[in-house]
Amino acid sequence: MEWHSKFSGPNTSPGFLLWQATQSWQRKVGKALAEFDLTHVQFVLLTSCKYMIAHGETVTQKKLASFSQTNIMMVSEVVRTLEKKGFIERSKNPQDKREVLLSLTEIGGEKVTAALPIVEKIDQAFFAAAMKKENFLSGLQELLKHE
User: Fold this and answer.
1) Whole-model pTM?
2) What is the mean pLDDT of residues 84-106?
């Protein structure tokens, strides 16, 4: 069987390397978040919601999806799960009855407060070598501009 690729192998393919790094990082974060009864995606959306509220934003599922750059349908499903767990509350917007507002419950806020430092510690350890490279963060930011 012949092999044709622009790259000499998997270790020179940026997409494959990013995939592997992402999988490794997500495994570490997922393992740490299990003790908080959160998946990685639940943590990201819950933390994003808390961040947005702390910065004076009214949070809707649409705004949360945009902020976290995730699919609105996935956000809807995850928010439903977070609501069942008692971490998020949904309510109708008094100014626009079609719009659903999101807020954290006390326990949801406590989950973020407890889990965030642990996830940040994992991030610091996992990305330490790459952060020494001058353009690592700006390179990631540049990738997100072209979506």
Assistant:
1) 0.87
2) 94
Token pair 């740490």 is found at 32
Please tell me whether residue 142 adopts helix, strand or coil conformation.
helix
Distance from the Cα of residue 127 to its chain's centroid: 16
Q: Does any domain span residue 147?
A: no
More confident residue, 38 or 18: 38
Answer whether residue 41 is part of any domain.
Answer: yes
Please give the Cα distance from 77 to 64 (Å, whole number). Answer: 13
Residue with tokens 């390397």: 17
Q: Average pLDDT in the 43-52 region? A: 98
Domain count, the chain: 1
Phi, psi of 93 (to 5 degrees): -75, 120
Strand partners, 102: 90
Structure tokens at 125: 């350890």
* Residue tagged 């997409």 (tokens): 15
